[in-house]
Structures are given as C-alpha cells and as structure tokens.
Amino acid sequence: MSQTVVLKVAMPCEGCVGAVKRVLGKMEGVESFEVDLKEQKVTVKGNVQPEAVLQTVSKTGKKTSFWGAEAETTETAKA
User: Fold this and answer.
1) Average pLDDT per run of 10 along the chain, which is 79 residues long?
2) Where does the record place the HMA domain (predicted)?
3) Model pTM?
4) Three-state secondary-structure class, residue 21
C-alpha cells in the first residue's frame, strides 16, 4: 500500500541533503522522495512504514521528526 511520509530533518547544507538522499535511495519500498533544504522537509512516497522511514533518515545523524511533531524527536544531531 503506497503512502506518503513527511519528515522534518535538520539539514544545514547540501552535504546533508546528499546523505539523506543516499539512505532513501537504498531503502526498500521507496518509490520517490523529495528533499527541500529551505523548508528542512523530506517527503517520501512508496510502500513504506512511517516509523521505518524515520529510523532510516535518523541514521544520517540528523535531528529527525515527523512533520508537525516539533515536540517529538527521535534523535539529536551529533556534532
């Protein structure tokens, strides 16, 4: 079942965008994704589970949460 997952990801630079694109490109079930550096927003479409997408993007070391859930963060950025 195809669905859309929207995440807020702390991405200060193009290198961060590249890291997010790399992990999403390898993730099974992802049909397409869009990374918006200005909005700090990642939209993923495909046969994916929201929690799995969140965990995958969190592996980049970037602060990641579901869009609209500012109080909830699963991982803080490692500087």
Assistant:
1) 94 95 97 96 97 96 88 41
2) 2-65
3) 0.83
4) helix
